[in-house]
């Protein structure tokens, strides 16, 4: 008599249980093998041909390159700030108002052109044209959106239109 018979357990059940455990262990070993291969590929990609001895030098080189990139970014940020400062003095807002200065005598050939900076400083050029007397051109200075010379209604319209335009510095 064998031991399992004395205990009252059928030996067939033991063999089936052992077989299930062996299959489960085989599947677990297979999944661990795939996981190891995955990590091996990651390690090879990380080392990129280095054998580990040069890894410290590679990391130091990457940090050096990173510091150079940070320095370049900081320099570029300073340049952008300077350009923003300079561009506030550039003409950025424009408006043209065409009109007929003398009804029926010149057509819509007269105009007022307003040119402003971001701070609404600039000028208005008005050209008044008629068929008889020719063309007269006037320039009026604009400081902080205001003129110290009386503006015609056409010039006021051009000024207001230009002031309401978005600056190139706006987001």
Task: Walk me through what this model shows.
By secondary structure, this protein is an alpha+beta fold. It is built from 4 helices and 5 strands; from the N terminus they run αααβββββα. It has helices at 3-7, 11-47, 55-87, 153-163; strands at 93-99, 110-116, 122-130, 134-143, 146-147. A 5-stranded antiparallel beta sheet has the order 1-2-3-4-5, with helices on one face. The N and C termini lie far apart (92 Å). The relative contact order is 0.09. The model has no long low-confidence stretch (mean pLDDT 85).
Strand order of the largest sheet: 1-2-3-4-5
Overall morphology:
elongated
In total, the number of strands is 5
Low-confidence stretches: none
Number of helices: 4
Broad structural category: alpha+beta
**Total tally of structural domains:** 2
C-alpha Rg (nearest Å): 42 Å
Strand content of the residues, in percent?
A: 15-25%
Features:
5-stranded antiparallel sheet, 171 residues, elongated, 5 strands, 2 domains, alpha+beta
